[in-house]
């Protein structure tokens, strides 16, 4: 969003690096929060839901809603 509102243009390599970093971060959060017990099984849906909830909760706290 900042690229559009600031009228900034990024080259293909920079954009690819930024998107890769973003996706790796999302994957890491899903794995961390979706891992169950000692089996090492990862429930990505559970992990994504928990990570999403935490992100919304943090934003609400930051804005003083809660």
Brief overview:
By secondary structure, this protein is mostly helical.
Top keywords for this entry?
flat; mainly alpha; two-stranded antiparallel sheet; 66 residues
In terms of topology, how is this protein built?
Elements: H1 2-5, H2 12-34, E1 35-36, E2 41-42, H3 44-62
Antiparallel strand pairs: 1-2
Helix pairs in contact: 2-3
| Strand line-up in the sheet with most strands | 1-2
Average pLDDT level: 90
If you compute it from the alpha carbons, what radius of gyration comes out, rounded to the nearest whole angstrom?
A: 16 Å
Low-pLDDT sequence parts = none
SSE series: HHEEH
Portion of residues in helices?
A: 55-70%
Distance between the termini: 26 Å
Number of extended strands: 2
What summary fits the major beta sheet? 2 strands, antiparallel
User: What is the structural class?
Assistant: mainly alpha
User: Please, what is the oligomeric state?
Assistant: single chain
- Number of helical stretches of at least 4 residues: 3
Indicate the overall shape: flat
Strand-residue proportion: 5-15%
């Amino acid at each position: 969003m900042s690229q559009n509102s600031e009228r900034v243009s990024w080259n293909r390599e920079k954009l690819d690096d930024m998107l890769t970093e973003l996706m790796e971060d999302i994957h890491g959060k899903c794995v961390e929060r979706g891992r169950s017990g000692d089996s090492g099984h990862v429930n990505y849906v559970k992990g994504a839901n928990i990570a999403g909830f935490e992100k919304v909760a943090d934003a609400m706290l930051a804005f003083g809603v809660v």
